[in-house]
Amino acid sequence: MNDAQNPYIKEVKLYVDDAGEWRFTAYARNGEAIVVSSEGYTQKDDAVSAIVGVFGPDAPIVHD
Questions:
Q1: Do 35 and 61 contact (CB within 8 A), yes or no?
Q2: CATH class in words for 9-63
Q3: Confidence of residue 5 (pLDDT cuts 50, 70, 90)
């Protein structure tokens, strides 16, 4: 997402948790975590689809 679409989101960090599931955390421009996935995903593509569903196709996804 670019600034014109959502000026509040700095990045959405995609990572694998200790259980081996994909999760994400969205951060505001001030660095505060504002959205944390409530479930883990066994497939990376499913986690990315969830991010796109919430933040749109231009979500600023970064991989941990």
A1: no
A2: alpha beta
A3: low
Residue ranges per domain, the chain? 9-63
Q: pTM here? A: 0.85
Tens-place pLDDT, residues 8-25: 889 999 999 999 999 999
Tokens for 60, please give them: 């600023």
User: Which three-class secondary structure state does DSSP give residue 26?
Assistant: strand
1-37 exposure pattern, b = at least 16 Cβ within 10 A, e = fewer: beeeebeebbbbbbeeeeeebbbbebbeeeeeeeeeb
